[in-house]
């Protein structure tokens, strides 16, 4: 057992009692010989803590003093966890018995692999990929993230088309495996993100340091999705637009940053107009609010820049526009857009 890397599955919870009741038993049945399961609670008031204490006494509890969000919540909790590997797992994910070992085996093969994700499929329709992560994350030249198996609203059926372990650009925070040493080196998530895209930012920073991010199809999990913020939430739109601009500011090399940010602001304006035409006025206001926050915090984000490398040198980037290809050229799947992977 001493030769088996230690794994800590850490579930960050905020008022997710129903999900813990339903999915935590599956996590506790995981087949791995050096495993601890931890629930880090972001100051819930729905009885989650009492549930863990009474129904699942074998689970370690970490109590955060307030709701730090996804990013800050994990930063606070993982300061108290000792293990070779962290697995950041959403509370609304159903795992299978042997979901851990294939990912750890893959990551142990290469010291430069910092993080990885399993195949993430839909809990509601288990033959299809799920929105948050699918078969691994990629990014286009304008900073738009997308996944193999999911581009915008198009979800693919899993027919084994993405069954090869692959280096990707980012791994989903729904089920994120990361070496503790790499987490510590990168100083975890950017807590200012609060929620959404913090895992993409972390993976990008790791790639800028020379590390690899991997996808492991030999492990499958099933994600409900939207457990905390629904897909149509204006606040979720605000976080996504704001955090994407912050991420680009922090990680793009100087030679690309001005062109990409200028382009993105105009593309975001087009999204705002589209929301307004669709009478989604709260979403349109969310885009405007995101831009205001971006400019207010521009200097702060510039100060967070580390050592960006050329985007073209990073595996998992698409040197084109996924927005243009999807909406204008009608290329709906990953393989319609990228054929070499």
What report would you give on this structure?
The mean pLDDT is about 95. The chain has about 350 residues and is of the alpha/beta class. About 40% of the residues lie in helices and about 20% in strands.
Looking at this protein, list some descriptive labels.
341 residues, alpha/beta, 14 strands
Gap between N and C termini, in Å? 37 Å
Order of helices and strands: EHEHEHEEHEEEEEEEHHEHHHHEHH
What sort of overall outline do the alpha carbons produce when their principal axes are compared?
globular
Strand content: 15-25%
Low-confidence segments: none
Count of DSSP strands: 14
Main sheet record: 9 strands, mixed
Helix content: 25-40%
The structure class reads: alpha/beta
Overall pLDDT score: 95
Helix count equals 12
Short description:
The protein has 341 residues and is an alpha/beta fold.
How do the strands and helices of this protein lay out in sequence?
Layout: E1 7-13, H1 17-28, E2 35-41, H2 48-55, E3 60-63, H3 69-78, E4 85-89, E5 93-95, H4 101-108, E6 113-122, E7 137-140, E8 145-147, E9 150-151, E10 154-155, E11 166-168, E12 175-179, H5 180-186, H6 198-208, E13 212-223, H7 234-251, H8 254-277, H9 281-296, H10 298-302, E14 317-318, H11 322-327, H12 334-337
Parallel strand pairs: 1-2, 1-4, 2-3, 6-13, 7-14
Antiparallel strand pairs: 4-12, 5-13, 6-12, 7-8, 9-10, 11-13
Helix pairs in contact: 1-2, 6-7, 7-8, 7-9, 8-9
């Amino acid at each position: 057992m001493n030769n088996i890397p230690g794994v800590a599955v850490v579930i960050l919870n905020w008022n997710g009692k129903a999900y813990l009741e339903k999915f935590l038993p599956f996590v506790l049945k995981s087949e791995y010989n050096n495993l601890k399961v931890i629930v880090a609670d972001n100051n819930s008031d729905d009885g989650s803590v009492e549930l863990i204490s009474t129904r699942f006494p074998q689970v370690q509890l970490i109590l955060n003093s307030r709701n730090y969000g996804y990013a800050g919540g994990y930063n606070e909790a993982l300061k108290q966890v000792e293990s070779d590997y962290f697995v950041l797992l959403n509370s609304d994910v159903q795992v299978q018995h042997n979901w851990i070992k294939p990912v750890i085996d893959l990551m142990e093969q290469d010291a430069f692999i910092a993080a990885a994700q399993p195949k993430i499929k839909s809990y509601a329709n288990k033959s299809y990929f799920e929105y948050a992560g699918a078969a691994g994350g990629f990014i286009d030249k304008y900073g738009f993230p997308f996944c193999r198996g999911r581009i915008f609203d198009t979800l693919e059926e899993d027919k084994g088309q993405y069954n090869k372990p692959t280096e990707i650009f980012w791994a989903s925070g729904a089920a994120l495996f990361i070496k503790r040493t790499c987490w510590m080196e990168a100083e975890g998530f950017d807590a200012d993100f609060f929620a959404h895209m913090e895992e993409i930012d972390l993976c990008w920073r790791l790639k800028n340091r020379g590390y690899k991010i991997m996808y492991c199809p030999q492990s499958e999990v099933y994600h409900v999705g939207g457990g905390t913020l629904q897909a149509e939430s204006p606040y979720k739109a605000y976080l996504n637009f704001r955090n994407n601009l912050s991420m680009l500011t922090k990680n793009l090399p100087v030679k690309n940053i001005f062109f990409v940010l200028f382009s993105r602001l105009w593309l975001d304006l087009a999204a705002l107009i589209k929301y307004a035409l669709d009478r989604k006025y709260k979403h349109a206001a969310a885009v405007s609010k995101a831009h205001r926050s971006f400019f207010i915090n521009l200097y702060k984000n510039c100060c967070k820049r580390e050592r960006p490398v050329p985007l073209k040198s990073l595996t998992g980037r698409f040197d084109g526009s996924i927005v243009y290809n999807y909406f204008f050229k009608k290329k709906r799947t990953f393989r319609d857009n990228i054929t070499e992977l």
